[in-house]
Amino acid sequence: MKWKEGCPYNPRLNVDVEELYIYDTTLRDGEQTPGVCFTKEEKLEIARKLDELGIKQIEAGFPAVSEREMESVKAIANAGLNADILALSRALREDIDRALYCDVDGVIIFIATSPLHLKYKLRKTLEEVEEMGMDAIEYAKDHGLFVAFSAEDATRTPLEDLLRIHRNAEEHGADRVHIADTAGVGTPQSIYYICSELRKHLKRAHIGVHCHNDFGFAVINSLYGVMGGARAISTTVNGIGERAGNAALEEVVMALMVLYDVDLGLNISLLKELSELVEKYSKIPVPVNKPIVGDRVFHHESGIHVDGVLANPFTYEPFLPEKIGHRREIVFGKHSGSRGVRAKLKEMGIEVSDDILLEIVKRIKEAREDGIEIEDKVFRDIVEEVLKSRGCSK
Ligand code: MN
């Protein structure tokens, strides 16, 4: 059955769907949202749900952070999940040893490459940093790990340096290289450009994109990265993460499906539930109008919209909410029309004449404009009052 209605003008994504995948970092970058701290049990539960969704790779944490973090990552790696479990690692052998202790399948080795980070943060030369990176990659590969190498602040690194270092990383055995838009300063055009240049310089390594949402561009930048040749997309549930967060998993997945007709084969009926789980444990509230999973993104109030949706949901919805475990709701208020009210009355087993219906609609609008929210109880009271005043009883 049809469940979505996209725009026929959307271009096709020039990608091999079989090769495209997500590595989710809710448990690492997501947990780095200021104020967020998951317990081991919470991390495990989120990891299980991500696995149930069908995510290919889960970045479970950063073992160097603490002993407990290390134990959490180890527990996830040993939970028997289908997903490959990755750990974040600095370009240091001791960090890779910690990852090995955790029994993970792979590591994301990161080191900053931009002049800004080299000068003010690392206080190292690019040559020193490159040497550290290559040593770490070799060490991790010698120990049988999947290795992704991430140039932190890639979007502010001179292209020739970026290309050389990533090519070097590939030659040292990296399975994937990341373009990390660490400060969220890339645009769709620049991310596309960097990825497509990088694609030309690599032989076999995949490209991953890790985008931040400082300007609300994380999702679209990720998709342009894919158009430029990236094969792995970094996401977090609800888009949580450092500062304005990362590319939201649910937005990337649904945009690919509905707008670009690319199906990653995920069990999307779990998306709303997963969002609620992460909202609960992160204590970062999901805005009610947050795309895809916000509580009110499938609510309709205005009479014109309600009319349309009752006749055919696609008139005002891009896809059916139940597909992702969400639900549609008709809300009553200032903009309500008679068709929606009649549908609600029918649900309650009440049939009324047209003039009584109009009276009920009028009273609903007035009540809302008096500052009253039209919850079920209020709706019922209004209906009862009108019926009583008209001498009918229900
Ligand atoms: Mn990040």
TrEMBL record:
Record keywords: Transferase
A Pfam family that the UniProt record links to this protein: HMGL-like
InterPro entries, per database record: AIPM/Hcit_synth_CS (IPR002034), Aldolase_TIM (IPR013785), LEU1_arch (IPR011830), LeuA/HCS_post-cat (IPR054691), PYR_CT (IPR000891)
Molecular-function annotations in GO: acyltransferase activity, acyl groups converted into alkyl on transfer
GO biological process per UniProt: carboxylic acid metabolic process
NCBIfam families xref list: LEU1_arch
The name this protein goes by in its record: Homoaconitate hydratase
Organism: Methanothermococcus okinawensis
